[in-house]
Write a structure and sequence with these properties.
mainly alpha, 3 helices, 79% helix
């Protein structure tokens, strides 16, 4: 009998259930995170642009000002 088996045999049923529950929760969390991230990337892809940060920010501010002027 190995050391792991000896430890498990000394645990109560409630302790074993708690350990199993935690393992399942962590596994499901990891799977959900991987799925969500991959699903997001598959749906929208990553941002690709040749503009600099300053140019992008300038366009955002300029579009805000243009929409306010049309009101």
């Amino acid at each position: 009998m190995n050391e792991s088996t000896k430890i498990l045999e000394n645990l109560t049923m409630n302790q074993l259930e708690l350990i199993i529950e935690r393992i399942v929760q962590k596994t499901l969390q990891k799977e959900n995170n991987n799925y969500d991230n991959q699903n997001l990337l598959d749906t929208f892809g990553k941002w690709e642009d040749t503009k600099t940060e300053e140019e992008i920010i300038g366009e955002i501010y300029s579009s805000k000002n243009n929409s306010l002027e049309s009101i």
